[in-house]
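We examine the record.
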Amino acid sequence: MNFNEILLGILRNNNIIGAISSAVLIILFGFYLRKKNVFKDNTAKILTDVILSASLPALAFKSFMQDINKNSMMEGINLLIWGFIIYILLIFLTKVIYMKYNGDKKAVLEVLTTFGSTTFFGIPIIAAVYGNVGVMYASIFNIAYRVFLYSYAYIKMSGIKADKNNVKQMFLNSIVLATFIGMFIWLFQGSLPQVTIGDTSYAFLRIDKTAFWLFKPMTYLAALASPLAWLAIGAKLADISLGEALSSRDSWIYSFIKVVIVPLINIVALYILTVTKILPVSFVGLASVIIMMATPTATVAAAYAIKFDKESVLTSNCSLLSTIFSVICMPLWIVVLEVIKSMNIFM
């Protein structure tokens, strides 16, 4: 199959084209609503709070409400392991990448490159393109992200040891709790007390089968994650000065590394690990990782920089420019992933 045939196949895939167009158009709509003052100063923050406290936890939990088999379980374990490996690698690689920089600027660029907006920006896109399986794999992969974001990133930016409040954030925020609870049910559904429905038995905590009255509202909350996130991104973009960001050479360098180079590193590494069968992943597993890695600056990482007064202007510029880069590049990454899929390397 040549490239033209692959591209035509992508263009004929309504799910992919619909997901890409939805993300871009709704982000632009959020931008328009903020510019017209329909969205007020605090609207993006309110939308973000709703997404992080309700929609994304529901989406993460819901994604685990499915049958388990040997392949999906091994895939989840491999992605969990890869999550810890890649963040440790990025912590050291960024020191080399930014070796020409010094002081706070070097520290900030290292942290901002390592940690992207995987939860807020990445998972809604994964949900739109790759469905529940993609979200489940992304949620498992993201466990390592949470551990390092609230430990390494905090220590690096603050210059002090992680305190008990940060440890609480690491393990007790609603998204992490929903992920761990959902993963527990998914992994141990065969050992939990069973409920027979028709001719099939399900774990009593598989609420998609045993308590549909509870599962259905959760699906509505989960479905809000993508459109609300895209509206909030558009509204946030409208509030930041594009001219200042565009004039920052460091922000351009950072954005290219964050949105292009970091995902490429993951593709090469996961290709080697898959063909050698050391840590094989499926296509959906690969796609979930690449989309998570191609996300812009993490909100928490940017907040650390601003809170501890470390290159706050550079951080704001990096956040804006990397968001624009990511919005432009994400459809391209999805096309690249579909080309990789056609090669049948990742099954």
In short: The mean pLDDT is 88. The first helix runs from residue 3 to 11. The longest strand covers residues 194-197. The beta strands are 194-197, 200-203.
